[in-house]
Amino acid sequence: MDRRRFLKLAAVAGGTLALGGPGRLARGAASRTVPTVDRLVLTNVVDNVYDVFARGGRQGTLTVQRTPLGRRGEPALLAEHGLAFHAESLRGDERRQVLVDFSLTDRTLLNNYRVLGIEPTRADALVLSHGHGDHYGALPDLAAARRLPPGLALYAGGEDTFCHRVVVTPDGGRLDQGQLDRPALEAAGLRVVLARQPEVVAGHAVTSGQIPRLTDFEQPPAAARLVAGPPGSACAASLHFPRGALKVEPRPGELVPDTFQGEIATAYLVKDRGLVVVTSCGHAGVINSVRRIQAVTGVEKVHAVVGGFHLAPAPDEIVAKTVAAFGTLDPDYIVPMHCTGVNTIIALERELPRKLVLPSTGTRLLFGA
Q1: Residue at 323 is within a domain
Q2: Residue 135 in 3-state DSSP?
Q3: What pLDDT sits at residue 58?
Q4: Predicted TM-score (pTM) above 0.85
Q5: What total of structural domains would you count in the chain?
Q6: Are 205 and 89 in contact (CB under 8 A)?
Q7: In the predicted model, what is the mean pLDDT of residues 93-112?
Q8: CA atoms within 13 A on the CB side of 95
């Protein structure tokens, strides 16, 4: 059975996937055992905004901690168009730290690590959601400067994470989105793991694997393109489309629509709470992403959905359908960040106000006991 057909069937079947050895989810198993943590502290290290007036405190079972401005002359948090998380989880006496995404610039990321007291050399694993510079930007410098443990695993969802990307503007121009250099990361000591299928990360977290597109209203950004590589290479266009969809293999250097096949979400199952799903950018669709995590874990209860939902450029109709789908999923909390857009935040405030937690760089979300 080919990989794409398996992904579709696995999602439709409700996700009969389970632990199948150290750090790996096995296919076709009847059990749905997934790692459970007692407590999760998810820190938004970098986001588009830093709101010194953002309200913290207790919201139901969730504790929201905000980072205030320091004293005059002390380093302050920086915000930029990018996203980065630090996830610290506990199970009994066992503690794990995972870094998810790496903002746009090393200046911002390293500054905020310092302000927030996060030491990247203590990371147990890294997760990169997809190959856009506002999510991987600081990673090459972080790795090259040996600020990460040698041999540390970097989980990415597929080959296209390391392909050249561009955006086509309405006037026909091109915005170069760059390309992440996998050999350079490996030369710097990272161990790249292509998590096309779900993976257990550091014994505590789970990645989604590649995300089937099941909704009829979530579509990848129309302006996004991949630069086709030579046939047979990791960036060959035929690898990024369903079999038979391409009638002619594009020539190297030609642009093809970017379907974000390799984009992944990250999740934790928090004891007595449910799933905390980190969508990062959500090009695969935030609802698709959450449903994928439900399928691969066999857990229906969603405690929180956190991250970018990529609805800033979306028309009102798509925003309304997404918010309605959130109502059906019924998470306890929704924390929209980065590329979600004010349009969607306003809609969530109107329709699901008790679930909404407003974003701000430096926010710590405390899930569990």
Answers
A1: yes
A2: helix
A3: 96
A4: yes
A5: 1
A6: yes
A7: 97
A8: 6
Position 161, amino acid: T
245 falls in which pLDDT band (50, 70, 90)? low
* Domain assignment present for 305: yes
C-alpha span between 246 and 73 (Å, rounded): 57
CB 85, CB 99: distance < 8 Å: yes
> What is the tens place of the pLDDT at every residue in 280-289?
999 999 999 9
DSSP letters along 53-98, please?
T---EEETTEEEE-----STTS------S--EEEEEEEETTEEEEE
Domain that holds residue 300: 37-368
In-domain check, residue 27: no
266: domain CATH number is 3.60.15.10
Give the DSSP letter of residue 131. Answer: S
Phi-psi region of 214 (alpha: psi -120 to 50; beta: other; left: phi over 0): alpha
Which residues touch 55 (CB under 8 Å, ≥6 apart)? 64, 66, 358
Task: Count CA atoms closer than 13 A to 198's CA, side-chain side.
Answer: 37
In a domain, 143, yes or no: yes
86 has which bridge partners?
A: 43, 99
Of 241, 300, 248, 297, the closest CA to residue 273 belongs to 300
